[in-house]
Automatic annotation (TrEMBL):
One annotated GO biological process: carbohydrate metabolic process
Gene3D superfamilies: Glycosidases
Taxonomy of the source species: Eukaryota, Metazoa, Ecdysozoa, Arthropoda, Crustacea
Similarity field: Belongs to the disproportionating enzyme family.
Alphabetical list of InterPro entries matching this protein: GH, Glyco_hydro_77
Enzyme Commission identifier(s): 2.4.1.25
UniProt name for this protein: 4-alpha-glucanotransferase
Keyword terms of this UniProt record: Carbohydrate metabolism, Glycosyltransferase, Transferase
GO MF term set: 4-alpha-glucanotransferase activity
Pfam families membership: Glyco_hydro_77 (PF02446)
Catalytic activity, reaction form: Transfers a segment of a (1->4)-alpha-D-glucan to a new position in an acceptor, which may be glucose or a (1->4)-alpha-D-glucan
Length: 172
């Protein structure tokens, strides 16, 4: 009905949370890409559909969303078992030494860039390795949300080089 009324728009379905068979069927039937949030992948106690090797082309991969902690903030706050699981998985998936000097944001971004998803999105806060002081939104709260702004001095030739390098490496 949406396609008939509005045409073929670039819609992304927010298919997060508990997904019933009916929701999965509706998503499939619509043809809209769903969301893959890497920050949701690392629960060491259970299997996850959010691990990048499970992404399919018709999806959009994110490090996290505006409602999540920054990756550096998540890494600082998550249980140690899950943090270790994330590092083990990401270094193996990316083929880098676990003792590499890569920061957690770099690993997350590279993992979604490497994935099969047709589109990969990372927040600037994650490129900059900023902690939760740069978080965009805390759901169900008022007052301090949507205040983070990129400062001009945070944009550097090094950052541009890093983004260009990973984009070329994974043909994004």
């Amino acid at each position: 009905a949406i396609k008939k009324e509005l045409g073929d728009l670039p819609i992304i379905a927010e298919d997060l949370g508990f997904l019933t068979k009916e929701v999965k069927k509706l998503l499939y039937d619509s043809g809209y890409p769903g969301m893959k949030i890497l920050e949701f992948a690392f629960d060491s106690k259970e299997e996850s559909d959010y691990l990048p090797h499970k992404y399919h082309k018709n999806s959009v991969a994110y490090t996290g969303t505006h409602d999540n902690e920054t990756i550096a903030g998540w890494y600082n706050n998550v249980e140690e078992e899950d943090r270790e699981y994330a590092v083990r998985y990401l270094t193996k998936y990316l083929g880098v030494d676990i003792k590499s000097k890569k920061k957690i944001g770099e690993l997350f971004i590279e993992a979604i860039w490497k994935s099969e998803s047709n589109l990969a999105i990372a927040q600037m806060q994650d490129f900059l390795e900023l902690d939760n002081r740069a978080r965009m939104n805390i759901p169900s709260t008022l007052g301090e949300n949507w205040k983070w702004r990129l400062k001009g001095d945070e944009l550097s030739d090094e950052l541009v080089r890093k983004i260009k390098e990973i984009t070329i490496k994974y043909s994004r």
